[in-house]
Amino acid sequence: MRDKLGARGNDLPARLKQARRQMPFKVQPEAAVMADALEKRAHPKLMKQVDLPRLQTAERRLLDHLKAIDTSDRRKGAILGALAGLSFNLFVLTGLITGILLWRGLL
Question: What residue spans of the chain are helical by DSSP H?
Answer without folding.
Answer: 2-5, 12-19, 28-40, 44-47, 52-68, 71-104
